[in-house]
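Format notes (please read before filing issues)

Several people have asked whether sequences and structure tokens are stored in separate files. They are not. Every record keeps both together, in the order shown below: the sequence lines, then the token lines. Line labels are part of the format and must not be stripped during preprocessing.
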Amino acid sequence: MTKTHDIFRKTWLTILGISVLALFGHAEAARIKDIVDIQGVRQNQLVGYGLVVGLNGTGDGNKTKFTVQSLASMLEKMGLTIDPEAIKVENVAAVMVTAEMPPFARTGSQIDVSVSSIGDAEDLQGGTLLFTPLKAANGQVYAVAQGPVSTGGFSAKGAGANVQKNFPTVGRVADGATIEKEIQSNFNQKDNISLILHNPDFTTATRIADSINSSMTESLARVSDSGMVQVRVPGKYSDNVSGLMTLIENLGVTPDVTSKVVVNERTGTVVIGENVRVSTVAIAHGNLSIQIKEDENVSQPMPFSQGQTVVTPDTDVVVKEEKSAIYLMESGTTIGEVVRALNALGVTPRDLISIFQALQVAGALQAQLEIM
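Then the structure lines:
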């Protein structure tokens, strides 16, 4: 191998090593698409009122008047006139039907719907949801739902006992709604794109803008505030904004997080953020237990001695205090050092909650303490 080939080989290995490190570094970062939403690109909630039929005697009772009225109205539209007072069926249940219409949904595409009983039905399993228009907040119909209901549970009862799994009064119809009307969108004609951060933070927003600008040939992104980054659409993407977003959403950014300690007193859960720091402080934690045992000593007289029974209380008090060492934490102590020190104290999660509350009162906890 010549000297030139050797130099070329070493140079190539160096470049390969740098590329591998860059790939690993990029893998540790979050994609922009995972930490932001695009303003105007969101789901829309749909809701409708419908009837589930074909139940095996587990539908609404006759006391649920709106179910009877709805059934009578439906039969009338089909050409059958009947007195609502004459309807006595238990195979029908009134339900509310909800769905989420995804962004850019097209006419003819299908979405799942959730079906929830609003009467006194016991079980929706085996029923069929009838034709139900689904409306948005503006009152317009955007989808129509119909199909068999699956509850993923069951309910059975006898004279003296009943068995139930999950919630049989709530079900789902897979691909049960068909989109009938599209929401107009001019996304590919936008001049500016607004990226909304899931967790507003000035540092994270600045990193997003820097990442976008460094990947483009011109400066396109600027930070509006801690929760928004605006991106100007360049001329070459004027009719292909979707292509620009494909490039942007796959860029890597390391989000910054607020120093926070979250504790849940009900479950004893403690979550400590990476950037939590503790000022110089000495910690000693020990448990004091006091046990009080009450007893009575009874002294009875001999038979026929005309004496009296004497009852003397006997109290036994035991006080036990655990000895605990005092640990000194220097200023700027990291979370790893805090955990090691508290583990050395042998504290439980419940004790840890008390310690962090005391650190906050002492002003030594350089983080936000959030109690759930």
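For reference, the curators noted about this record: The longest strand covers residues 288-299. The radius of gyration is 35 Å.
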